[in-house]
Amino acid sequence: MNLVIVESPAKAKTIEKYLGKDYKVLASFGHVRDLPSKNGSVDPDNKFAMSWSVDTQSKKRIKDIENALEKADKLILATDPDREGEAISWHLLEVLSKKKAFKDMPVERVVFNAITKKSVTEAIAKPRQLDQELVDAYLARRALDYLVGFTLSPVLWRKLPGARSAGRVQSVALRLICERETEIEKFENREYWSLGASIANPKGSNFPARLVSLQGEKLDKFSLANEADAKAAEAAVNAATLSVVSVEAKPLTRNPQAPFMTSTLQQEASRKLGFSATQTMRTAQQLYEGVDIGGETTGLITYMRTDGISMVGEAISDCRATIGNEFGDKYLPGQHREYKSKAKNAQEAHEAIRPTSFARTPDSLKISGDMKKLYDLIWKRAMASQMESAKLERTTIEMTDDANTVGLRATGQVVRFDGFLKLYEETAPANAEDDDDNATLAPVVKGDKVTADDVAIEQHFTQPPPRYSEASLVKRMEELGIGRPSTYASILKVLQDRGYVTLDKRRFTPVDKGRLLTAFLENFFGKYVEYNYTADLEERLDKVSAGDLDYLTLLENFWKEFSASIDETKDLRVTHVLDALNDALRPLVFPDKEDGSDPRKCTSCEDGQLSLKLGKYGAFVGCSNYPECKFTRPFGGDESMDAQAEDKILGEHPETGKDIVLKTGRFGPYVEMETEKKPKRTSLPKTWDYHTMDLEKGLRLINLPRKIGSHPEDGNQIAAALGRFGPYIKHNTTYVSLKDPEEMFTLGMNEAVSRIADKRANPGRGRGGTVLKDLGKHPTTEKPIAIMEGRYGAYVKYEKINATIPKGQDPKDVNIDMALEYIAEKEAKSPKKKPAAKKKTAAKKKTVTKKKPAAKKTAAKKKPTAEA
Predict the structure, then answer these.
(1) Which three-class secondary structure state does DSSP give residue 844?
(2) What is the mean pLDDT of the chain?
(3) Is residue 771 part of a domain?
(4) Which residues contact 553 (CB under 8 A, 6 or more apart)?
(5) Could you give the 3-state DSSP secondary structure of residue 868?
(6) Is residue 114 part of a domain?
(7) Is 303 part of the annotated catalytic residue set?
(8) How many CA atoms lie within 13 A of 571 on its CB side?
(9) Are 351 and 380 in a shared domain?
(10) Full-prediction pTM beyond 0.85?
(11) Are residues 600 and 483 part of one domain?
(12) In which element (H, E) is residue 717 found?
């Protein structure tokens, strides 16, 4: 028997069917071990030795593999075909070797780019050895990320309270977002005007044109700088007698884009489908693992983490055959197309992301939702890459008067043969400008007299660069050589999870602590957030994977410089940090005032100086005369925020007669009302503007939590409230977040009950999985029992007990009696509380407390331990 190890249990079942009875396929469920999240997991003084740990769930997986090895003749490692997949195989070998799970048993490494029977069987027939160079590249990357995170983060906690951590690549991505925000803030609009006209001629219909020259001089974007200039140009065009001076038609050829690699798939899925990077990769994973086709699970696309844009010859032949069948021979070029990656630092070569069979058209598959949308995108892009070029004709018509006072130009583009455009056209970035007008032009020739009708001038203002979207940020990171395809989605997610950025209307905006962190790193660790340095480090990692650089040499060179930079911050005082941040963030925190007065002058005590302060929850602005002057405002405020420091009475509460007061504290604006015990306060939701607050809104907030009604099951209250993480509804211990703050005041009883039920059925990854089957209630306690879908398989859920379903037992066949048996077994294995022992301990402690000598002895014993 041959034992095959893959990463995913979904793949394991499929591949076992492909390989037949002589093969047993088990899943590792990803990595079986990792570096513990504590100091010392990487030891720079011992050749960067790494201390790996195996979690409880992975121990079970390894034990299953050990047991299967006892009956196996060969071990085949078939983890994913990328650096991480190679590392997982290496980890397994390391763990199993230490356990002496196999002696002279042959070990093979196989990789397949698609989960189809053909791909899998061909891979099994062509095994290789583990690629140690790829493993070394993984070890180097893992050590670098650990050393930066666990060495730099404590510096942040000491010098920059409120900052959570700094990742090696995430910090550079955050810098990009913050720099773009600074560009937007510093941007000054510039006025300019344009002139357009409708050209009439006796030979055909009107066509649009624009003014390109005036008084014999070529116009640029800002030549018509104001309305007076524009009106003078308008008068000149209206007075001119125009004739055609040239008509030029140029043939153009547009070639299709290459098939998708990871980054381009994420970008195009964002632009065309509105998918986040995480959503794209999750859906692509489902397509890769496959769906049921004719009773057999078949992967629909090739591996989705790749820098490659080429397709193997067999796939190209399949694609060309499908093009001929679907669109005809005229859409099929005489020679197939070959694509090569132009990436600055392309990862180890893989195929592009493509369908495993081009004959499986999107409409022929029984898939829906996100899977159908993404498969359609991948299929069309890959198909188009091998289709004939599009043939276009671009026509330019130049017109002027006899005195050459004014010159107008009309441009148009005509598609003579659509080629690949019949199937697919890449979406232009949101901020891209069209260079050509696609108007259909009238058939005119040189010398024809024409008239400019409907002459119109239009005012414009230059616009700041747009904030980064997921697509544009991934593209920029790719251009700079930062990160890798497999990391882009996680980088963007980490920035949001740590609260450094927000994603609003699909655009990234840095929050205050994100900008604070970036400013700190730029001032004290500037080298490590430089784009060139990060890209160079990626290139060196690629050299390790290519065998051109020893990974320990890379780590030694990095650590020598990085540890020296960390040492330099040991004597750094917080006051020095604040001085640097005050200067670096001055335009944001202390913008210039219109009257020219000192923006850092305290508006409360007059003689104090405003400065950034660091508190437990992050940064805020305070007065240098504290505690005499207690003026504070949130970090990132401006002159208008200074005004917010003064309390504003919104009106009286109709029931209590107390004033509802709008205030601003270090954590932002809030409303307050005095009560008999202590003031009642409620923060403003993030989407509510301070300046539009009135009594109605103040009352709505101060009256929170709002009672929605009694739950029909137990009669307990359902309430809506505003918490630290935003608006929510609550019933007993179940909390459901609300996306729109307005729902706190409008959500009805039926909808509230429905959402609570949904949350209990699908509590999320941190609190369980999806309900597969509701088994009813426990016969004794009347508490619900259900079968849940967990990360590591199905299990029985009863109160706080998660009972494992025996291996080989189909969860769908489990009934209430079987579930009760599993629960009883779990309870029997669980450690029982010993109340008597607790009482003895308590009594013993009480006695010891009365004896003074014993107390001294205990204290003396603890002291050395505390110092150690």
Answers:
(1) helix
(2) 84
(3) yes
(4) none
(5) coil
(6) yes
(7) yes
(8) 2
(9) yes
(10) no
(11) no
(12) strand 717-723
Rounded Cα distance between 524 and 506, Å, is: 32
Q: Which of 67, 97, 78 is nearest to 19 (CA)?
A: 78
Statement to judge: residues 562 and 481 lie in one domain: yes
Query: Which is higher by pLDDT, 639 or 80?
Result: 80
Q: What's the domain range around 245? A: 191-255+391-461
529 and 621 share one domain: no
Give 39's DSSP letter. T
Which DSSP letter does residue 271 get?
Answer: I
Q: Are 728 and 736 in contact (CB under 8 A)?
A: yes
β-partners of residue 707 are: 719
pLDDT of residue 345: 43
CATH number of the domain encompassing residue 431: 2.70.20.10
Q: What is the DSSP letter of 811?
A: G
Does a structural domain hold residue 723?
no
Q: How many CB atoms lie within 10 A of CB 478?
A: 23
Per-residue confidence (pLDDT) for residue 435, from 0 to 100: 46
Considering 367, 388, 409, which residue would you say is the last residue of a domain? 388
Question: Could you tell me how many residues make up the chain?
Answer: 868
Q: How far is CA 499 from the centre of its chain?
A: 12
> For the domain that residue 99 is a member of, what is the CATH number?
3.40.50.140
The residues facing 399 across adjacent strands are 244, 408
Q: How many domains does the chain have?
A: 7
Dump pLDDT digits (tens) for 755-812.
Answer: 888 887 766 544 445 667 778 778 777 788 888 877 667 888 888 888 888 876 778 7
- Give the torsion through C-alpha atoms of 705, 710, 714, 719, to 10 deg: -20
Of 266-270, 713-717, 774-778, 803-807, minimum mean pLDDT range: 774-778
Asked whether the CA dihedral 441, 447, 451, 457 is positive or negative, the reply is positive
Nearest to 442 by CA among 401, 414, 407: 414
With tokens 């999870």, the residue in question is 497
Spatial contact of 230 and 261, defined as CB atoms under 8 Å apart: no
Statement to judge: residues 825 and 769 lie in one domain? yes
CATH number for the domain spanning 171: value is: 1.10.460.10
For the segment 49-78, what is each residue's pLDDT rounded down to a tens digit? 999 988 888 888 899 998 888 888 899 999
Instruction: Supply the pLDDT for residue 265.
Output: 94
> In this structure, are 249 and 267 located in the same domain?
no
Of 167, 186, 178, the residue nearest 512 (C-alpha): 178
Reduced to 3 states (helix: H, G, I; strand: E, B; else coil), residue 59 is helix
Same domain, 447 and 550: no
Residue with tokens 């024809």: 448
Question: Within 13 A of 274's CA, how many CA atoms are on the CB side?
Answer: 4
Rounded CA gap, 194 and 429, in Å?
A: 24
For position 713, what pLDDT does the model report?
A: 85
User: Residue 624 maps to which CATH number?
Assistant: 3.30.65
Note the pLDDT of residue 162.
60
Strand blocks (E) in 427-489: 449-461
Shared domain for 585 and 562, answered yes or no, is no
Q: Quick check: 697 pLDDT over 70?
A: yes
Catalytic residue among 23, 192, 303, 795: 303
